[in-house]
């Protein structure tokens, strides 16, 4: 289990580097920007779950994000569009490496999550956080 979490953490570092490159391109300093309410709600939930629950429940909390990003990346890549400003994003999330990370996380869920009402609430809340996170993009004033 430790090796899988280590692989997932390495994937997060790859993501952070991707986001850092985008931020620099757009003139955003990630170390000083304040996260929006939806982002804060989601990350606080993930951190609280990781620190207070069993590894299987933490994996359940993370799985909607991983699966959604893999799905979106693969769906966008399947359209075969030419190079554009989000090409690196699509390349990252449609890659075999990211799909492998999503599958490893799902394997942790299968192997370590105990089917309880808490697990169902955790998954549902993670899905609600995803919805709120994406919906926030429509309300951001540029």
Order of helices and strands: HHHHHH
| First-residue to last-residue Cα separation | 42 Å
Strand content: under 5%
Tally of DSSP helical segments: 6
* Share in helix: over 70%
Structure summary, number of beta strands:
0
Ranges with pLDDT <50 over ≥5 residues? Answer: none
Main sheet characteristics: none
Overall mean confidence score, pLDDT: 88
Give the overall silhouette.
globular
Secondary structural class: mainly alpha
Number of self-contained structural domains: 1
Question: Gyration radius, to the nearest Å?
Answer: 16 Å
Mind explaining what this structure looks like?
- The protein contains six helices and no strands.
- With 142 residues, it is mainly alpha-helical.
- The longest helix has 24 residues, at 2-25.
Quick synopsis:
By secondary structure, the chain is mainly alpha-helical. The protein has helices at 2-25, 37-52, 55-78, 87-94, 96-112, 117-136.
What brief labels describe this structure?
globular, about 140 residues, mainly alpha
List the helices and strands and how they pair.
Elements: H1 2-25, H2 37-52, H3 55-78, H4 87-94, H5 96-112, H6 117-136
Helix pairs in contact: 1-5, 2-3, 2-6, 3-4, 3-5, 3-6
